Structure prediction request, 625 residues.
Amino acid sequence: MTSTAAADAASAPASPSAASAPGPATARPRRGHKGGKGPRERTAELASSLAMIVIGVAFLIPLLWVVLASFNESATLSVSWPEKWSLGNFRAIWNTETTFRPLGNSLLLCGGATIVTMVAAVLCAYPFSRYRFAAKRPLLLTVIFATGLPITAIMIPVYSLFVQVNLIDSMFGAILFLGASSLPYAIFLTKGFMDSVPVEIEESAWTEGAGVLRTLWSVVLPLMRSGLSVATIFTFVGMWGNFFVPFMLLLSPDHLPAAVTLYTFSSQYGQVAYGQLAAFSIFYSLPVVALYLIMGRSLGTGFAAAGGVKG
Amino acid sequence: MSTLAPERPATGPVRPRRRRPAGIGDRLTLRRAAPMIPAAVLLVLFMAGPIIYSLDLAFTDKAIRGDGASKTSFVGVSNFTDALTDGDFWNSVVLTILFTLISAVIGQNLLGLLLALLMERANRVISFAITSIVIAAWILPEVVAGYLLYTFFAEGGSLDGILGLVGIPPQTLLFSAPIVAVSFANVWRGTAFSMLVYSAALGAIPGDVQESAAMDGAGPMRRFTSITLPLLRPALATNLMLITLQTLSVFGLIFIMTGGGPDRKSQTLPLYMYEQAFSYGQLGYGTAVALLLLLIGAAASLVYLRLLPEEEKR
Prediction:
């Protein structure tokens, strides 16, 4: 359930721009300098550990609920140890209607939008990173400003526009909007990673007459692979958790992604089946948790601008 | 700070480049700008478009049904004056500010800082386990978080169960003080972000500064207020600005947990805006409220920018 690698990165943050700063490797031994720990350090460690445990337990309870309730066919709202562990909840939602179609829709929506975002972001970041032009700074500032723009506040005009051009309830329209809304942050991250690829390497490609796209594809992108995967995962994860955008732009049950069907879960059955709701929540959360684990240590490189991830 | 600012490579001084033989580092030409077209088209159509349209929409009576539906007309600033004279609007403004203060400025910010400081001293295994839990709360999808916290605060939920163990009667916070419940929920969900920001900033403070201060006889409190805190200022400002903007626009979490109720007691501005636009069908009015929400966000950002030390301002 917990993201071990993510936490690992948390205690060892690294970023392209932090390369010159003293890293965690030098920060760590600080507490035990001059050999072993004195009684003072030990008391501090004990007190800090205890405080962390208290906070951690408070954070843990809701997480415990989802795990325990998913295996408990008579789950209630309260955290309780299942009298009889069972996979019944998972079996009950193991069908197209409840689980596979919404998750498939999520994959189509978020996967499609991630492709749109990343292709546009990489293409846009290259000239930003490699050429000089007068409007560069104002344009970059606009992009940075746009990363902080609360999407919630523009959903009504977006809805209204989509109704007018008949894009409401269109998967295609939702993919394009979702893609565009995460574009500023993706451009911003991608450009940062691209800047750290030395230009000198491209020179030979240029002198051999390779064009912009050719150079970008076969020289630059392979060199920034890890940065690119961080940007891609951040984009995807942000979209996967997004509720408001598909909630507004998609209507028919056939199109709804998991974020929205989870909301309609309770009304579907009349009486809320909490165990099934928990089981579905786990199915829905797994891909995101898995991606964070894959991202592992490189999480530190991108988390700071996670404004786009939270909403 | 360094880890905090992926924008630095973007806007910082351009790396000095030698004159090179072929195209790179040269001026942008029309041909070379061609790859930027897809991004430009997407951003203009789907981001700039709606923003510009909202400036028009907010001054009309456009509606889903009723008067403004068949024929939309310009109504001047009346949407704004309607909002400013509506008690429910002000109720939402107060709740939004309360929600942002409790959950972002106080909750996520202080708890994140505390956890980052504790992480440095606590036992490594414990620190690793606890940060994993906090981060898990952060990466779960918004709707899942909403339901998890709903079960925690609901009547007969985990909170009442725990309080019962120590003999405190059920609180049913979702009815008695829903804004407090959703604020705590947002703290649960958002603390990891601040924790990561502060832990990165703390990691960038050179250890020898602390050591020499300790040798000069500065106690832990003194070292914290005179060294750590001033060095954390840029991180503090950045973190506060980001989480405030995020928190102002939180919709899903509250929508799932309380739907804004009961009796509008947790109806923050995004939920008020949604209700006006879709339950009552007043798209023009809803857009005006959205613009006022943006205004509050801009005002908050300006306050935080003043927190930044001079050299960090661009």
Remarks:
- The CA atoms of residues 134 and 192 of chain B lie 6 Å apart.
- Residues 1-13, 18-22 of chain B have pLDDT under 50 and may be disordered.
- Chain B touches chain A through 127 residues (CB under 8 Å).
- The two ends of chain B are 15 Å apart (CA to CA).
